[in-house]
Amino acid sequence: MAVHGIDLGTTYSCIASVDDVSRPTVHRNQEDTDTTPSVVFFETPDNVVVGQTAKDSAVIEPDLVVSRIKRDMGHEVTRTMHGRPYTPEEISAFVLRKLAADARTATGIPVDDVVITVPAYFGAAERDATRKAGRIAGLNVIDIISEPIAAAITYGVLNPGQDARILVYDLGGGTFDTTVITLSGGDIEVVCTDGDHELGGADWDDRLVEHLAERFRQEHPDVADPLDDKQTEQQLRRDSEELKKTLSTRTRHVVRVMHEGRVAKVEITREEFEALTRDLLDRTIDITRKTLNTARGKGVAGFDHLVLVGGSAKMPAVTEALTKELGVTPRLQDPDLAVAKGAALYAFEETYRRLLDSGDRAGAEEMAARAGLSDGQRQEIAGRTIRTVASRAFGIKATASNTRREYVAHLVNANDPLPADVTEGFATLDDFQTRVAIEVMEQAGAVASDLIEDNNKIAEGDLKIPPDKPAGFPIEVTFTLDTSGLLHVTARENETGERLELSVQIGGMSEEEVAESRAALSRVQVS
Amino acid sequence: MLPEQDQEVDLENSLARLAEQVAREHERAAHREQIIDRLHAENQDLRRGLLQEALTPVRSGLYRLYDTVTREAARRATLDRGDDVVPLLEALAEEVAEVLARTGAERLEVSPGDPYDPALHRPLRTEPGEDGRVTAVVSDGFRLAEQDRVLRKAAVAIGKAPEQTGESDTPDSEENA
């Protein structure tokens, strides 16, 4: 059984699995690159193109191309293509299908069981939407895990028995995230997370493009602006990306900006580049410091490991600044692929453990044998239980019988170990109530609060009450929160056995819609 | 149970454990052999692939040179002042293309009128023209002949038929009236 890990990113996505020497390996797509642009082009009603070609096609058919769909996950927005509305789950499903199909082409092994990563700040609704995207793509999503946790797994700093505090600094192409994770007695907890979703490596490139163009303008004020010419602009963009990479290894480099038959020779040193982008780097450092302060406020003072994630974290200035500011040398290894690899490792180990737990020893041993694991390694994996905790508090809206004040009664609190299964008793407020409105609330801010405005309503439903019951008629509410943060709510009254079942899906799709969509979209070709 | 029997059972258990362990070690050894075979095959491919990988930065530098010279030749040609430099620049571009070809990168044959093919063309813009056809080649593409793989798509402009909308008809009819 091959299980895969998928990093479903805002701009790029990536798929990996554990190979026959128990190493995580990234599968290249058909275009021969490790990562695939998360861009979907609805070429015709029954043909969808994903990846670089879809990105290129945005020039010709901008209205049929969708990018950055991850930002809409968990929200009720659709995009209509060729007359059919598509939900964010469905559009993401196309990206997942492309990854799965290409991995199959590369390895000859079909992709079925997967673990998909999401940002640490994703709440229950976004996680649920991600899981549904996987189901629509025809995949069996065994778990959803946070990106920084996946990265920490790749870096090998989440070893049960060794408590650790980890700071993850993730500078991607278009987003920046920083997260503090703790591992304590085998429990993994995301202590806090922060970031800037409009800041990324592309901003560094923009600065270089502008610098090169400005130097040209200064030297040749009598010719047209190089940035007004699409072709020159594209060349400058390519030159800037190259320049950024070159300055990661060399300390100075020359770029000749050529336009309208003129040349400006621009020499740029690493120091100059760093000075041009100092404020961008400072912003990431400020956010990182703020995150550490928040963690301190939650009782986590300091950290043992600093791991870097995201292709832009390769810039030497990042390591230098973090070392200087935080006094710790960061670890940097394969930062662009660390999340997908960690998801693959987690998927592998979790599947092995589940097989053992379900009594399928033969299945587990076969899986271990195929990955070439020794007896010792097998025992180590079997004994490793990485538990996760709730990232936020969940409860229902209740009214105090004496003051009639509305508040949120929490059933699950942030940092409760998962899976959690909590039942609490409530009662009707008035005589002869015929129904009780159950409103499920999720903590909105960084700190749990029972004020209604500090929480988001994520699901609701009515529980019928038998006739002629006086106030105080008892009802029971059960919250079941699984390890990936998905919530199932049951409300019941025990007299007639009337039940209300809710699965959290704010702005999400119902189970029936997911099944329908899976069937309908399976007829669409994805390439 | 007699002490001897006890010992026997112990011995049997140890033997069973040992047999199991040996079997597993055998399994692992066989597994390793398979991996060595695969690594060997991969290594062969890698040696060839490494050469291509090493050529990548050289090629990207040559593409840039080729683009720059071609573009400048085209720009000077449009100025229409019998510039002697134009044939020289064109010859230089050809020389660069030949060096590229010697690394295995051959120019893609793309010309205006070709139907848009996302596998070969990277659209830079659209312009009025025959819908879905290449109207101009902005920069040439290259393919790795021996593997029939596109290394760089040709940057092109794609034709888009002017939209037939009611709005654009209105001024016409007004003028006619």
UniProtKB/TrEMBL annotation, chain A:
It comes from the Bacteria. Keywords: ATP-binding, Chaperone, Nucleotide-binding, Phosphoprotein, Stress response. The keyword Nucleotide-binding applies. One of its GO terms (molecular function) is ATP binding. Residues 219-240 are annotated as: Disordered. Belongs to the heat shock protein 70 family. PANTHER family: HEAT SHOCK PROTEIN 70KDA. This is Molecular chaperone DnaK. It comes from Acrocarpospora phusangensis.
Automatic annotation (TrEMBL), chain B:
The keyword Chaperone applies. One of its GO terms (biological process) is protein folding. The keyword Glycosyltransferase does not apply. One of its GO terms (molecular function) is protein-folding chaperone binding. Keywords: Chaperone. Residues 109-131, 157-177 are annotated as: Disordered. Pfam families: GrpE. It comes from Acrocarpospora phusangensis. This is Nucleotide exchange factor GrpE.
